[in-house]
Amino acid sequence: MYACICFAVKERDVREAVSGGPVRMSDLCANLGVGTKCGRCVSALRDILRQATQESQLRAVNCEVYDQNFCREA
């Protein structure tokens, strides 16, 4: 699904940006150009960014817990 039609940025592109580390809305605007033309995408982008950030943090915690459990068994 397109997150920003003006710059043909898909939701997947936003999620990939978040997977690289902490990202703010201003980072997305600067790096992907989103939200800088008509602005209609900004509220949806904030939602996508929030959700993707939470998912990324959860994956990091799950990996950390897995690594700790794996190390205990070794």
From TrEMBL:
One Pfam family from the record: Fer2_BFD
Single GO molecular function: 2 iron, 2 sulfur cluster binding
Residue ranges of the TM segments: none
BFD-like [2Fe-2S]-binding domain: residues covered: 4-50
UniProt keyword annotations, A-Z: 2Fe-2S, Electron transport, Iron, Iron-sulfur, Metal-binding, Transport
Presence of the UniProt keyword Kinase in the record: no
Annotated signal sequence range: none
Family that this chain belongs to: Belongs to the Bfd family.
Name the record gives this protein: Bacterioferritin-associated ferredoxin
Organism: Hydrogenophilus thermoluteolus (Pseudomonas hydrogenothermophila)
